[in-house]
Structures are given as structure tokens and as C-alpha cells.
Amino acid sequence: MSVNFSQLFKEKSKFLDIKVILVIAVLIICLVITKLWSVAPQLSARDFLPLNTSFFYEWTSQKSLTDNLPPQLIIFDDQLPMEKADFLRQNLGDLFDNLQEAIWFKVAGSEEDNYLVKFSKLSSKSFKNWHEKHPEVIYYQPSDNILMLTDSVELINSIKGKIIGHFTVNHLSKGINIYWQLNQPPDFLYNFSSFLAYSSENPEIFMNIQSVGQKQNKVNLFQINNQPLDIEQNVLFKIPSDFDLAIGFNASSTESLSNFLNKNLLIPIYDGLPYYNLSNQKISQYFLGDNIIFQDDDGWLMINQEDYQQKTLDLADSFEVQEINKVLPDGTAYTELIASQEQTIVEHEFADQKYWQIDGLFGIQLENYYYLSNRQYLIEDLITSDKKINNLWADCLDNSSYRVRDFIFWPTDKLPDIPIKAYLEENNLQSLDIFSYYNSAITGLQWCF
């Protein structure tokens, strides 16, 4: 019996060709599915908040809904939000186990409560079982794993078939997010809102609250800019390695913010310090201008981009004086003592770095920044320090796009006896760390403790 190897080879080749075609087809299908999956939008419950939303309270995870806020983060009456969380737990039943995100919200012109909830998965069977137990609930399912619970058919019709995507700027995916109008705050936010200055042109405000372990809590307040802002990168200049407190204010900060901080924080604090030696006028001039001030016991160090040698006469305790003879309008002669413009400048050197002294003040230029202090050891500590300004907020501000504008870094035990110190002590908070920041889209204020 003879075997036709040529024919056998042809048949085998055809079989191999079919296998190759099948493999290629499977690969193409996999690539298409992967592509479709990768471009499918990862929708959030907030993507379906109506444009006329006047308030929302978002729990970004099941944990943030089930866990009560730690005492130090209760900066408003949280009784009502807790009641809404209980409502969701009770009404979602078995669906609650797969809850990923929940939003309680209201729309303009209505006091009705509405909810958006997102689940990690929402099978048709579990949804059917839930609906059979709650036939009275009016709902809309805008996405496979998202439900809107509301008594308003009109509200459902207004968003049906749409992805709104209005509340996406600077959305934070941890903790609790709150949005409201400062001129029409919800009752539970009324007292808190009264402390916040705002412009009638932009009453909308967002707040994020989150607890990061036992030693780090964050409260972030921000507004969306009416117009995009040009931003500069944070300039990293040297700061002392050891100090008690630090304050920095930018001259371009809003007048309302500057006045609020000056009246409610700076003057009360400095009026209570036993070593206070700067007048209220100088607080406004130096603290609320383009200056950064570090304090260590009774020593202070100021940082600016202008040469301090020309300003030392404003701050020096004593100087060489000149006698100027003058005459009053009524003819009375008198002698006026004025500071001599030719003060003695003493040069010092430490760690191969030169710095100067005028009277009891010491100054140095490092790169493009000027430093002035009333204590020599602060200048010498600065020279050998490896700390940069961003060390102050490295543990507080997560977003590298934020440009820090103002900040307060103040340990609790260094504060005088003012109301905010009592609050910090009662909640075992070690320091008062506040940073105002901005980027091209938002302007905000973050408090870390």
C-alpha cells in the first residue's frame, strides 16, 4: 500500500491554516473586547447629579457611610446626615452589602430628599428581590450598577438618558464630600457657613472631610474659579530646621481672607504672647504682605524676595540718630532725632557663608530669597538646614498641582489661651496647620491635624 505524502502534506497544511485563522480571529475578538472595555466610562453616582443640584452630601465608600466621624472632625451638626445614612442602610436591604458610593442631594426649589447609590455589582436577581420588598420606592437606573431613589418623576425625566458630569472638578474619592450654596446653606451647615467669607458672585462651595489613620485628619474647603488662573510652581527655598511656628501670607490673597485671619487669628494670638514685640500695624504690614515668618521662642525669622537691609530701620530696637533742627509754624524751635541712613553693617561668616548684622538684626541672601532675624542662631541654623518650604505641607496637600498661597503652622502648646486652643486640646490635636492653595481650576483652604 502506497502513501501519497504530497496529498497528506496538503491536507495537513489546510488544517494548520484553519487553526492559524481561528487563533487570529480569537486574538482580534479579544483585542476588540479589551478596547471596548478600556474606553467604557467608569461612571460614578455623582455623574448623574442634576445641573440644578443645590446641595449634596456624598459618602465615597460604604465605610464612610457606616463609620461615624471622629469627634475632632465633627465641625457641624452631623445628626441629620447620620439619619440619612440610617435611611439608606434600612431601605437598601441586601443591596447594601455591595454599596460603593451614596449621595443624598436636593435640587433648587425643592426640599425633597433624593439619593444616588452605586454598587460594586447589581445583579438582576438581587435587584428584583429588593424591588419586590420595596414596591413603593420610585427609582431610576441610569447605569447598570447605579440607582436613583426619589419621589420626583419630574426629576427622573430631567436626567433620563443623560450623563450629566457636572460635579467632576477636583472631586476627591475618599471620605465625605459636601456641596452647598453659602447664601442658602442647609440647616445643619448654617452655623459653620456663617464663619466662611464668600463673594456673591460665587456662593458655591465644596468640602471634603477625611480621616487618614489616627494621627491625620483633613478638612478641605474649595471653590471653582470663575476664570482659569495662571499658576506658578511652588518655589522651594530653605527654612530653619527647628522652630515653634510658621506663618506665610501672599499679598495677592483676597482681602476678605486676609481680614478674617488677621482679626480672628493673628492679632488675638500675638496679643497674648508674652514676647510680643510687633504692633498690629506691623502685623498687617509684614505678616499679611509677601512675607513668611518663623518663630522660635522669642526669636523670629522673616523671608521675602526683597532686600531687608532697606527695612531694618522699621524693626531695629535702636539705631544711630542724627539731630535735625526744625521750627514749628508758631516760630518755636525744636530738635528732631531721626535714624541715620548710614547704619554700621557688620559682616559675619558661618559654614563658608557670609551674613550681615545691623544693630540687633541679622540678614542673609540665599539664592533669590532674603532672610532677616532678631536672633543670630536662627540665621546660622538656616545656613546648615536641609529643609525646604514644602516640608511644611508635604503630609497635608496631596495634589502636586496645588500652589500654596498662605499657611499657618502652629503647635497647640505654643498657642496662647484663645478659643481655638481649647478646641485643639479637647480633641487632642497637636497643631493647627492651615494652607490656602490654588491651581488653574480651584481655590481652596485645607486644614490638617
From TrEMBL:
The chain crosses the membrane at residues 20-40. The keyword Membrane applies. Keywords: Membrane, Transmembrane, Transmembrane helix. This is DUF3352 domain-containing protein. It comes from Candidatus Komeilibacteria bacterium CG11_big_fil_rev_8_21_14_0_20_36_20.
